[in-house]
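// run 5 | inverse folding | seed 20
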C-alpha cells in the first residue's frame, strides 16, 4: 500500500476523532452552566426546619464593592457598605426591604424538605438574594436571615451549600410591640439638606399595611402593636432624600433606618469629582437568640476551556509521531 495513501487514511481517521471530541467538550461546557445551583440547609441546633419557604431573586452583578442592580432596584440609593463579612448581613436586609417595596417577583421559590434542604438549580452568573419566610413549630417561630450570594465563572460547574442563620421567639397571647427609628448621619444637619419629614411604608407579610410620617416632632420614631402570631413586618423609606443614602437593619421587632449624607463636589479646573461621606457609629438592632454566621460568597469551580486546545494538540502530536514512524520504516526498506 503506497505511503501517501496510508497517510491520507490516517489523516481522515484523526479528523474523525477530532470532530467527535469537539462536540463532547462544548456539551460539557453547556452542561456545566446548567449545573450551577445553590442548596440551602436549614437547621437550628437539633431541630430540622422542614417546610420553610424561600424565594430566590437575581438582583444584579457585583463590581468590586458596588452592585449593578437590575432596573427595578437601580432607583434606590442604598448604602451597602463594602460588602465585607462585617457589612453583608445589613446589605442583604436593605436590599430585601426594597425588593418588597418594588414588588419584585422571585426567580425561583420552594420549601425545604424533611432534611431541611432546598436546592435552586439552573442558575446563571450574577448576584442573588435568598429570602425566607418565618416558620412556626409548635409555640416557637423561627426567623431566617436573608442571604446575599454570588455566582461567577461562566465555565464552572457549581453546587454551593449555604447555611442560613436563625433567631427565634416564643409566641404569647399578648400584643407585640414594634418600632421604627430614623437615624441621621449628617453632622447634625450641617449641610442643611435634611428634609422636614419623610414617609415610611410598613408592609405586613409582603403587603402594604400602612404609611407613617417621621419628623422631629415624633423624634423620627414610630411604634405600633400587633398580635404575636409570627407575622413578618418590613419597614421601607419610601423616597430617599436627595444627597443621602439609606441603610435598613432590623430584628424581630425593631427597625433602624439610617440616612447617611454624601456630599458631592465638582471641581471644574481639574475635571474631577470628590465624594465625601459623613461617618458616624450607630448601634444596630440586636437579637439575643442568634446562631453562628456562615460564609456568603460562593466559590468558583474548575475551568474547562483548556480541554479543547489540549485535545487538538494531542491529536497533532499523534499524527506527527505516526508520520515519522512511516517515513523511518520506508527509509529502512
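// decoded
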Amino acid at each position: 500500500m503506497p505511503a501517501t495513501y496510508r497517510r491520507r487514511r490516517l489523516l481522515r481517521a484523526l479528523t474523525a476523532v477530532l470532530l467527535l471530541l469537539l462536540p463532547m467538550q462544548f456539551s460539557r461546557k453547556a452542561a456545566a452552566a446548567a449545573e450551577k445551583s445553590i442548596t440551602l440547609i436549614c437547621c437550628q441546633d437539633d431541630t430540622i426546619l422542614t417546610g420553610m419557604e424561600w424565594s430566590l431573586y437575581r438582583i444584579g452583578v457585583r463590581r468590586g464593592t458596588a452592585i449593578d442592580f437590575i432596573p427595578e432596584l437601580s432607583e434606590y440609593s442604598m448604602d451597602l457598605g463594602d460588602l465585607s463579612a462585617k457589612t453583608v448581613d445589613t446589605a442583604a436586609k436593605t436590599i430585601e426591604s426594597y425588593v418588597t417595596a418594588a414588588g419584585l417577583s422571585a426567580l425561583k421559590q420552594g420549601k425545604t424538605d424533611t432534611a431541611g434542604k432546598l436546592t435552586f438549580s439552573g442558575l446563571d452568573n450574577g448576584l442573588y438574594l435568598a429570602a425566607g419566610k418565618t416558620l412556626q413549630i409548635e409555640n416557637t417561630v423561627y426567623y431566617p436571615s436573608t442571604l446575599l450570594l454570588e455566582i461567577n465563572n461562566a465555565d464552572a460547574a457549581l453546587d454551593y451549600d449555604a447555611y442560613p442563620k436563625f433567631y427565634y421567639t416564643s409566641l404569647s397571647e399578648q400584643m407585640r410591640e414594634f418600632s421604627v427609628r430614623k437615624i441621621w448621619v449628617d453632622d447634625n444637619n450641617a449641610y442643611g439638606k435634611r428634609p422636614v419629614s419623610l414617609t415610611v411604608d410598613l408592609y405586613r407579610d409582603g403587603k402594604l399595611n400602612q404609611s407613617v410620617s417621621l419628623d422631629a416632632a415624633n423624634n423620627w420614631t414610630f411604634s405600633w402593636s400587633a398580635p404575636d402570631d409570627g407575622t413578618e413586618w418590613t419597614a421601607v423609606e419610601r423616597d430617599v432624600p436627595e444627597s443621602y443614602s439609606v441603610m435598613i437593619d432590623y430584628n424581630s421587632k425593631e427597625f433602624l433606618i439610617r440616612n447617611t449624607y454624601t456630599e458631592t463636589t465638582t471641581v471644574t479646573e481639574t475635571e474631577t469629582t470628590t465624594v465625601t461621606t459623613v461617618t458616624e457609629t450607630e448601634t444596630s438592632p440586636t437579637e439575643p437568640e442568634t446562631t453562628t454566621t456562615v460564609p456568603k460568597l460562593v466559590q468558583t469551580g474548575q475551568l474547562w476551556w483548556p480541554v479543547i486546545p489540549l485535545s487538538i494538540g494531542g491529536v497533532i502530536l499523534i499524527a506527527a509521531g505516526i508520520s515519522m514512524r512511516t517515513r523511518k520504516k520506508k527509509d529502512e526498506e
